[in-house]
Design a protein that fits this description.
This protein has 124 residues and is mainly α. The chain has a single domain, classed as dip2346 domain like (dip2346 fold like). Helix content is 35%, strand content 5%. It contains four helices and two strands, in the order H-E-H-E-H-H. The chain has a two-stranded parallel ribbon with strand order 1-2. Helix 2 links the parallel strand 1 and strand 2. It is globular, with a radius of gyration of 15 Å.
Length: 124
Amino acid sequence: YDVDAMKLIDDLKSWELEVRAVIITRYEGQPAAAIFKNKLERRGVTVYTHRFTKGYPTDVDTVVSDQGYGANPYVETKKPLVVVTGPGPCSGKLATCLSQMYHDHRRGLKSGYAKFETFPIWDL
C-alpha cells in the first residue's frame, strides 16, 4: 500500500499537480503507518492523520460533530478545485472529503464534493 501511495505521489508530481498533503486515515499509531508517515515527511510531504471515528458511518450524530469530523485536522487548500485520491478502495477518500466539508461549513465556506469512478457500478 505504501509503495502504491508513493508511486501515486510521484505520478501526480510528474503531471505537474501539486501534492498538498497526505492524510493517513484510521491512524492509531500503528508501527507501519508511523514508518510511512516518517518516510513521507523526510520527502517533504505534509502529513495529517485522521483517527478512527467511533460509530462511523452509522452514528450520524457523533460522526457529524466536533467529536467526529471536527476532531480531524483541517487541511488548508489554496485552489478552488481539490483532487482527493488514494491508492485503492476503502482508503478514506470519502470520509476525508466529508471532514473537509464539515470544517468548511463551520468556517462559513460553501464547498461540495463530486465522486468520479473509473469502473462501472451495476446496481445503482
